[in-house]
Amino acid sequence: MKKSALFAIIAVFVALVVVACGAPAAPPAVVQTSAPVIQTQIVEKVQTGAPVVQTQVVEKVQTVVVEATAAPAAKEKVLRINLGSYPDIVDPQKSSFVNEIAHLNLIYEGLTKFNEKLETVPGAAESWKYNDKATELTFQLRPGLKYSDGSLLNAARYKYSLMRNIDPHTAGEYAAITDEIAGAPEWRGADLSTISDEDLAKLQATVSESVAALDASGQPCKEGADGYAQEDCLTLKLTLSRPAPYFHTIMGIWVSYPAKQENIEAGGDIWWTSPKYQIGNGPFILKNMEPFVRARFEPNANYWGDKAKVPIEYAYITDSAVAFQAYKNNEFDIIGLAAEDLETVKADATLSKEANIYPGSCTFAVMFHQKKEPFTDQKVREAFAMALDRDGWVKDVLRGLGAPTLTWIPPGYPGYKTSDSWGFDPDAAKKAIADSTYGSVDKLPEITDTFSDTPRNRTRNEWLVSKWKEVLGVDVKLNPVESTTYTALTKDQATAPQMFILGWCADYPDQQNWLSVYWKTGGFGERIAYSNPDFDKLVDEADQTVDPAKRADLYEQAQDLLIKGAPVAFMWNNVNSYLVKPWVTGLQLTPQDAGWAGAQVPTSIDIDASKMPSQ
Amino acid sequence: MARFLIRRLLWLIPVMFVVAIITFVLMHMAPGGPFDKDPSQRQVDAVTQKALNAQFGLDKEEWLDFGALSKGDIVGFFDTQFFTYMIGGTVKGQWRCGFICGNLGLSFRQRGLTVQDIVLKPPEGKAPWDSKAGYSLRLGLLALFFAMLIGVPLGVVSALRQNTPVDYASLFIATSGVTVPNFVFGIFLIIIFAVFLHAVPVVPTSWDSPLVWILPTIVLGFGLLAQTARLTRASMLEVMRQDYIRTARAKGLGERVVVWRHMLKNALIPVVTIMGPALAGLITGSFIIETMFAFPGWGRQFVTAIQQRDYSMILATTLIFALLIQIANMTVDLIYTFLDPRIKVN
What we know:
The structure holds two protein chains of two kinds. Chain A is of the alpha+beta class. Among the domains of chain A are: 3-66, no CATH class; 109-258, Dipeptide-binding Protein, Domain 1 (Dipeptide-binding Protein, domain 1, Alpha-Beta Complex), CATH 3.90.76.10; 361-574, Roll (Dipeptide-binding Protein, domain 3), CATH 3.10.105.10. In chain A, strands 11, 12, 13, 16 and 17 form a five-stranded antiparallel beta sheet that branches. In chain A, helix 2 crosses helix 4 (52-70) and helix 3 (36-47) runs antiparallel to helix 4. Chain A is globular. Chain A starts with a helix and ends in an 8-residue tail after the last strand. By secondary structure, chain B is mostly helical. In chain B, 66% of the residues lie in helices and 2% in strands. Chain B is built from 15 helices and two strands. Chain B has a two-stranded antiparallel sheet. In chain B, helix 1 runs antiparallel to helix 15 (311-339). The model of chain B has no long low-confidence stretch (mean pLDDT 84). Classes of the chains: A alpha+beta, B mainly alpha. Chains A and B meet through helix 1, helix 2, helix 3, helix 4 and strand 8 of A and helix 2, helix 7, helix 9 and helix 14 of B.
């Protein structure tokens, strides 16, 4: 008995090895993609009840058959991307991380979308208009829009999505982004453990009025399934609690993506894990999603706009050394370029041409606390800013993976304007100290530079401190703190340190997201006590101005004012860094690329098979 | 026998509890929480954070609620995150039984999924063994077979040919198996077999092909292979000097019978006994291998969960792995009594 069991084990193992070695020439990457669905079905039938290893043998035989029939055909065109981490949740109203959004952007489309210049352009809505005060925003949807399964897409679908985003039961991590909708903060903020059902229904009703789906005659669309089938339900009218002429841009991000109510309800809490429920209106259809292995997206023939040219496949390799090897082995067309591989890539004639390093969506600065001495004095802030050589910083500290900046809004975003204020100038820096109320460096109070204690941050902050010492002769103390403490400290104005490095990354491409959201009194910049009434006045006016040119001009004035006051030392923009194979064509790079090069405009990408290696 | 089993099973409870406490302390000491983002990004706003905390029971005290105790509320004293997870508690107004009922909890990051769903449920349209636990189990078994099938003969041969080149070669393999870290060995094999020889893809697009299982199996099983080879060798050398081997030879038995029936059978006892814990170790210990080979298993999920502070996922995985290892050890103790009748469990 024992012996026979041992023989069985050996037999199975030998079978595995033999079969595995029997077909070493088969390029599995190509073959398997050619008919993935059929393959699985056949295998399923065979697999029932069979032990583990044997089923694998069966599958292999299947693969060989597929190869034989597909042999003369050219390599299938498919864009293979390593996305890195596997998404935790692919739900438009709950997702918030880049790798999750990289999936949503392919499957769904908002009322608006962003083009390669990050301008807000029509998506599912063919047009939109604000009322004079910018407190009402009316979208006109394209007639005859379809989901990828051929069913009708109308304004009622978008209404459902927006309502779901605000609904306190959803508790989406990005729910606050639609707070301009009248009644949204109240409903979203309702305490579900104490509020009565009636009160909750009232709050919901208010938001429902603010998000009105209307038919051709201006009457509210029907409720429920009838509403979803109503062909003339093409108007979505949003009532905003305050003027917000940028709100059409927010309607381009993932929170309004119209996942279907019936699918979400049928699939329950885990609806998003199943491609059969992920029916969207975007340029691609999610065909399959296998945790940690891959996801495949096919072009959506029902998409209204430019049809996608090639299918996309995501893989989820988190080990950058492995991803790099796979890229070199032509198993990926696009991968992220990790900092540790940068030198290798630069030294290699081929790889260095394939590297795409371009500005990203974040700006980082050395923050000075406006109410903690000596940074209460603008001259001191100017001096500290002018003592820093941004080019040297990028070259020596960031090792080329960054772009120096002297302004707030990053290049590529609406409102970007170059600045030459408070750039590296040792003499001017020394003079600024002399001109300050302190008069000389030895009269400055003790200064500490606080950072979250990691080796990387230590290098960065040591560089800063040494430059201040070198240029100004100031002794700045390093104050490393544990990272939770750091996060807690920097969140609040009272506890925020004298100075620390912090940045901001774009949510959506509009000046409002950079200036009003961050620097207006009470915004995120409140942590360093920045409050400038003149600035507030400018952005307030801009936030209410419908005319785009006039609005842009006001924001520009506001940004100029911000920079003039030297509240912080603007340092660098992050960069997106990817390796892209030469046969990937039509790539449109934007700073907002989520997860891979060209992600913002995926439909323009094609593959030039003639440039691919023959092997 | 029954008494022994019951006693060992009862011992599981305090051990699991201690493991749970240590894991809980450590994971809450690690900075950050499941909903934290990069400080430069828009953070989850306060209202939503509160709602999420309520949804996942993070609004409770971590350990013991002394506030409730001071009000004389004994139940409230234990109504904390730890006890809610282990035993049960009210979350969002609903009572949920905890770990003791086999409920592994809701994932904090993969919202809507329970830990059972994540680990045991296969992707849509796939067989049960294509779940993450299934993948890890299969890889562990393959690695175990690989280690045994190569390790045992290697040990036998090097014992029979002691102090010959064969023995030294086996020593070399064994030493490198123990000393070379498996992530170094892994990338080394990837570069040779995938990049230079193109025998396998670096990144498998599907794990249905047996070819792509070979590298992870070898890397994962290599350490155990080395151990097995050394153990078999030592054990064989011991047995070879026994009286009954001399007797067997003296009565004229063929060399093959002596080696197979008399030496190997007895020499394998210590080898078999390490198999149980080794299997548990292989299934649970493949974190690095799984991440490196993008293997869709439980180990990679565990690594991800730690990075994301997905508390229930971390705790559940640690507890189940602890349980597996204890059961493996217990099984080995039982197997001992079958292999060697002189050993009594009591």
